[in-house]
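Morning F.,

Quick status update on the modeling queue. The single chain you submitted on Monday has been processed. Sequence for confirmation:
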Amino acid sequence: MIEIYDKKGFDKLLILEGSNLVDADLREANLKEANLVHYDLRGVDLRDANLTGADLRLANLSGADLRGASLSGADLTGAILDNTLMDKSESEDREVIPIVIETK
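Structure tokens below.
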């Protein structure tokens, strides 16, 4: 079982069955202020998720789909973003242009 807490470590934001989050479907999940430091989030579907203020430092987001996710104030310092899909902008009147981030 996986439990995801807020950054303060007091509030459980999500409880999932299984031993890892690789390829998990977390569409529209409310992970506001989540502590996801160093999490293995490869291939995770986070479309339209609320990641406002989330701490994603050093997380592996390779192949993850973050299109439509709210990332305002999220910390992605040191995160691995190989082949991660993200929107160009978070404004309401945006033209969505997926961005694929690749590193070599």
